[in-house]
Amino acid sequence: MIETLVQGLLLGGLYCLFALGLSLMFGVMRLTNIAQGDLIVLGGFTAIVVAPMLGMSILATGAVLIPLAFVVGYLVQRGILSRALDKDPLPSLVVTFGLAIVIQNGLLEAFSADPRSLASGGLNIQSIHFGEQFAVGTLPLIIFAAAALCTFGMQMLFDKTSLGRAFRAVSDDKEVAELMGLNARTIFAIATGLAFSLIALAGFFQSLRTTVSPADGPQLLLFAFESVIIGGMGSFWGTFVGAMVLGLTQQIGFKVDPAWGIWLGHLVFLVVLFVRPNGLFPKTKG
User: Fold this and answer.
1) What percent of the chain has pLDDT over 90?
2) How many helical (H) and strand (E) elements, i.e. helices and strands, does the chain have?
3) Closest Cα to residue 44, out of 273, 182, 233, 215?
4) Beta strands per DSSP E along the chain
């Protein structure tokens, strides 16, 4: 059971990375990104394409992928998403749904439906031993540490920096923030760039941990969405806790019966949604 719980927490670390970008975009722009899962898959395929150009160096691939994703996110926000931001959530849902369809079909045309993975140089099979009978995978530990650091970093950004205060200001009241001299379009574009960087990191780790295929997007979106809803929309530590709950629940379900894992995670999501519709931690600390 201890091994099951540890594996659940490590899986939750990956789900947290899936969900942080979604939480950020909702927290700043009140935008629910339906393309989240497909963007994660796109990040994974981009890493697979970029790695051979950099001599299959994992660190170099991540170092190129994350800033590249920031630039793409900034441009997507300025060119596409900014036109859909409105008090009515329907336009943004339609636009991001369309973006998801374009990404998925573009990946199918470019890579076919075959699953692919990023060569990890053996990292995905290495483990750290604790005693004679217990071992933890090195890559899942790295993913968990990255999730915790990203969550901490995003919360500190919101709490302690002028950019974080600008994020909170335009989120609370865009018109008043602009009267105070803030450029809401630029703030939104920076937030989207950061979200895309987190999404790219999630895709990078997903392609290292397992395979990615163009059809994976909807399932990854579901895991991200459930993590955010369990924790609370717009709450970074809430997203972290929600991802841990989802990962633990799935692993316990898999332990009982291999067919129960995903189903039990969905069931816990529905229970939380019924008992606490706003999630466990419904607002980013301000």
Assistant:
1) 57
2) 11, 2
3) 215
4) 127-130, 134-137
Q: Which long-range contacts (CB under 8 A, 24 or more apart) does 219-222 make?
A: 219/37, 220/18, 220/36, 220/37, 220/40, 220/41, 221/34, 221/35, 221/36, 221/37, 221/38, 221/100, 222/37
pLDDT tens readout for residues 179-194 = 888 898 999 999 999 9
Backbone CA torsion sign across 210, 148, 58, 109: positive
Q: How many other C-beta atoms lie within 10 A of the C-beta of residue 156?
A: 12
φ, ψ at 129 (rounded to 5°): -95, 135
Number of domains, the chain: 1
Domain ranges, residue 63: 2-110+137-275
Which pair of structure tokens corresponds to residue 39? Answer: 């963007």
For residue 284, pLDDT beyond 50: no
Mean pLDDT score, 132-158: 91
> Domain of 187: which CATH number?
1.10.3470
